[in-house]
């Protein structure tokens, strides 16, 4: 029971903050970036599984590597973001499967939050709060930067500094996300609640509130369903999230 | 004589390896309305961005001390990707509700406009919102980049009437990019014809002739003499 509550708490925090962060990432197609980032963490997850340390810890250096790749791609070349997805996805998966023990492939690909320890849950909670406050602090400026870097610069906003904190928040959430839903599904964890929220929101406040709620609710219901069905929690979370999205489509039609 | 608010000397701007503006010099006095005229890709928007400090350049740009600049961009395509009310859009600039209401009123909107979804506005409404956004903080200078397309029919006339009204009320100096020759004659007291390098500069009715326009656009331009007032 205690184990269940721990995973529930960790899941709700990760899901909620991932949804919140997603509201910044959906514009300019940044949400897609969470995909390659998640895939790129697979070798790190594999290492963590082999040597028995925390999955997020294993994933983190690879997320940082991914973010540097994005940065290089954005700044140094004019290649489209899709190119990154293709290259990084393939490389991440390929390298991981060179040495990933096949019996642990499921954990790597779709995550497992249900065996989270007390210390892991604590660190996760602290990190989630940290990221939450970082996002809250940079939020309105980041929205302006997303709308127009020129306008942001005219308002004397240090775009590089804000992007640094923004990418840092993404790195932490992706690293935490892979523990919950695995390298394959992290992008969905970030993008789906936001897409559902956008369908239903008329303003920024609703958008943020709904995306955060949908993220947290999906994690809560997914882990709850795991308890009763024994299907893996990661996919259940994403399926709940996708169902919320489908319902949002129906309600959108009504408005 | 009114004071100079902006002096530009030997301005050169390169984007990547392409020279976009070459050797441009001009001066703007307080209260002037300067039009920047030129074909697509002539560097007009680049000039406005450079003047507002967004792009790197060589040469000199000297604004009057402590001048405040408001910038009205051509369009903001990414804004539709985030649901946002008009009020929230203004809050990004850190403005108080009172200031937002006052500024919205001055561009002709009622207070009930605050709750409208920015992404659902017509292009004409959105342009006025952008002007109001630029006016927050009481700038001395307004840099206005006219959109080439997508403004509601009949909207343009009112935009320039609005700019003229705002100029009087707020004692603005305005630098604007336009394609509309009639705007140049009716509204501005100074013009720069730009096609990467400056082609003509001065008072519109003195420097704008069929020949200069031909040189500027490189093809036959329908040119109607303005009506003498």
Protein traits:
A: 255 residues; mainly alpha; 11 helices; 0% strand; B: 229 residues; alpha/beta; 6-stranded mixed β-sheet
Describe this structure as you would to a colleague.
The complex is a heterodimer of chains A (255) and B (229). With 255 residues, chain A is mostly helical. Chain A has a single domain (2-250), classed as ABC transporter involved in vitamin B12 uptake, BtuC, CATH 1.10.3470. Chain A has eleven helices and no strands. In chain A, α3 (42-51) packs parallel to α5 (81-99) and α7 packs across α9 (159-200). The longest helix of chain A has 42 residues, at 159-200. The mean pLDDT of chain A is 89. Chain B has 229 residues and is an alpha/beta fold. Helices cover 31% and strands 27% of the residues of chain B. Chain B has eight helices and nine strands. Chain B has helices at 44-51, 86-91, 97-106, 123-135, 155-170, 181-187, 204-207, 210-217, and strands at 4-15, 18-29, 33-37, 58-63, 69-72, 141-145, 173-178, 190-195, 197-202. In chain B, strands 5-6-7-3-8-9 form a six-stranded mixed sheet, sandwiched between helices. In chain B, α3 crosses α4 (123-135). The longest helix of chain B is centred in the last third of the chain and has 16 residues, at 155-170. Chain B is globular. The model of chain B has no long low-confidence stretch (mean pLDDT 85). The A-B interface holds A 23, 26-28, 140-141, 143-144, 146-148, 150-151, 153-155, 198, 201-207 and B 49, 52-54, 69, 71, 73, 76, 78-79, 81-85, 88, 91-94, 115, 117.
């Amino acid at each position: 029971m205690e184990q269940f509550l721990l995973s529930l708490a960790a899941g709700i925090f990760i899901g909620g903050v991932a949804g919140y962060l997603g509201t910044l990432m959906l514009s300019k197609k940044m949400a897609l970036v969470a995909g390659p980032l998640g895939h790129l963490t697979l070798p790190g997850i594999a290492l963590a599984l082999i040597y028995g340390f925390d999955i997020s810890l294993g994933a983190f250096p690879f997320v940082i590597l991914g973010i540097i790749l994005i940065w290089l791609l954005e700044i140094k070349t004019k290649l489209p973001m899709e190119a990154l997805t293709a290259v990084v996805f393939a490389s991440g998966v390929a390298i991981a499967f060179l040495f990933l023990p096949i019996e642990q492939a499921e954990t790597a690909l779709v995550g497992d939050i249900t065996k989270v320890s007390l210390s892991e849950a604590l660190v996760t909670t602290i990190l989630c709060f940290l990221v939450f406050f970082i996002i809250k602090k940079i939020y309105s400026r980041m929205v302006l930067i997303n709308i127009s870097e020129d306008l942001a610069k005219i308002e004397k906003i240090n775009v590089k500094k804000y992007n640094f904190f923004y990418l840092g928040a993404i790195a932490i959430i992706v690293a935490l996300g892979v523990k919950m839903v695995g390298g394959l599904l992290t992008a969905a964890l970030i993008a789906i609640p936001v897409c559902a929220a956008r369908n239903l929101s008329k303003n920024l406040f609703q958008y943020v509130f709904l995306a955060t709620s949908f993220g947290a609710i999906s994690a809560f219901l997914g882990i709850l369903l795991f308890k009763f069905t024994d299907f893996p929690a990661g996919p259940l979370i994403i399926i709940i999230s996708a169902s919320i999205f489908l319902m949002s489509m129906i309600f959108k039609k009504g408005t | 004589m009114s004071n100079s608010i902006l002096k530009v000397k030997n301005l050169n701007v390169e984007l990547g390896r392409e020279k976009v503006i070459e050797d441009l010099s001009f001066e703007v006095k307080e209260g002037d309305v300067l039009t920047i005229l030129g074909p697509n890709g002539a560097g007009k928007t680049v000039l406005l961005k450079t003047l507002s400090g967004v792009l790197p350049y060589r040469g000199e740009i000297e604004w009057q001390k402590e001048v405040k600049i408001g910038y009205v961009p051509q369009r903001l395509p990414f804004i539709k990707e985030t649901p946002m009310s008009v009020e929230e859009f203004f809050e990004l600039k850190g403005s108080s509700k009172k200031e937002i209401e006052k500024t919205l009123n001055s561009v002709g909107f009622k207070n009930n406009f605050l709750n409208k979804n920015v992404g659902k506005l017509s292009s004409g409404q959105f342009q006025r919102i952008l002007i109001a956004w630029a006016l927050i903080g009481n700038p001395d200078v307004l840099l206005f980049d006219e959109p080439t397309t997508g403004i509601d029919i009949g909207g343009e006339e009112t935009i320039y009437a609005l700019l003229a009204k705002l100029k009087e009320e707020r004692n603005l100096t305005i630098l604007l990019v336009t394609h509309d020759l009639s705007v140049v004659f009716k509204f501005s007291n100074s013009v720069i014809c730009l096609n990467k390098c400056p082609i003509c500069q001065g008072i519109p009715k003195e420097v704008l002739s069929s020949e200069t326009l031909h040189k500027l656009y490189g093809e036959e331009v329908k040119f109607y003499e303005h009506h003498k007032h």
